[in-house]
Amino acid sequence: MKIYTRTGDAGQTGVIGGRVDKDDDRVEAYGTTDELNSFLGQAMSFMDPQKYPDLLPDLLQVQHELFDCGSDLALLKQDLRPYKVTADMVDALEAWIDKYDAETPDITRFILPGGGTVSSTLHVCRTVCRRAERLVVTLARTQEINPEVRRYLNRLSDFFFTIARTANFREGIADVEYIRSAEVFKRKS
After folding, report:
1. pLDDT beyond 90 at 83
2. Total structural domains in the chain?
3. Which of 36, 168, 171, 184 has the lowest CB atom count within 10 Å?
4. CATH code at 35?
5. What is the pLDDT of residues 150-181, one digit of tens each?
């Protein structure tokens, strides 16, 4: 099998159920989830398996689920096959958020993205995830989508925020509060 097909040379690409322009909202949405997956792979490559034995398998699962998101976003009509992203995947993210958040110190103010290499890269994942979510919202205005993809990406960005803080905590690096922030978060109970 050859990697190149030449079928996209005129500016169109194949999706499940047809062909669309390469700058179509659908391609922008699933292309950005692919970009996010690449940044996540980079973040994982910076993680010491001794410090992240629990998180690395969770992130590998997220990588597979991002492929599922892309597959659902590439589907022109839902009747072509069942959607892959489900509410259970969103529920699992929420459980992970609670688990990793319990490990970190309380925050009451916004924090600046950064810290160590792992945390910084996870913050990049968070912001790319938010962009993917915005693109999915745009796509949903005019085309059929799996609404669970939108929910998944929304929760995933919260997950990235949480584990970026977890990474700083495990690396012994304090989060830096935004100095002009009011108290916006409640303390954990």
Report:
1. yes
2. 1
3. 184
4. 1.20.1200.10
5. 999 999 999 999 999 999 999 999 999 899 98
Tokens read off for 29: 């949405």
109 close to 179: Cβ distance less than 8 angstroms: no
Sorting pLDDT into bands at 50, 70 and 90, what band is 7? low
Question: To the nearest whole percent, how much of the chain has pLDDT over 70?
Answer: 93
Q: 14 forms bridges with which residues in the sheet?
A: 19
* DSSP assignment letter at 105: P
Q: Is residue 2 part of a domain?
A: no
d(CA 165, CA 111) in angstroms, rounded, equals 9
**In degrees rounded to 5, what are phi and psi of residue 78?**
-65, -25
**Model pTM?**
0.93
- 179 falls within a domain: no
Q: Is 115 exposed, middle or buried (0-12, 13-18, 19+ CB in 10 A)?
A: buried
Tell me which residue range forms the domain holding 54: 12-171
Place of tokens 């993680």: 47
Q: Residue ranges of the alpha helices (H) in 49-146?
A: 55-73, 87-101, 117-142
Q: Is residue 94 part of a domain?
A: yes
Q: What's the token pair of residue 86?
A: 């489900």
Examine the pLDDT at 189 and tell me if it is beyond 70.
no
- The residue written with tokens 């792979």 in the block is 41
Instruction: Quote the pLDDT of residue 31.
Output: 95
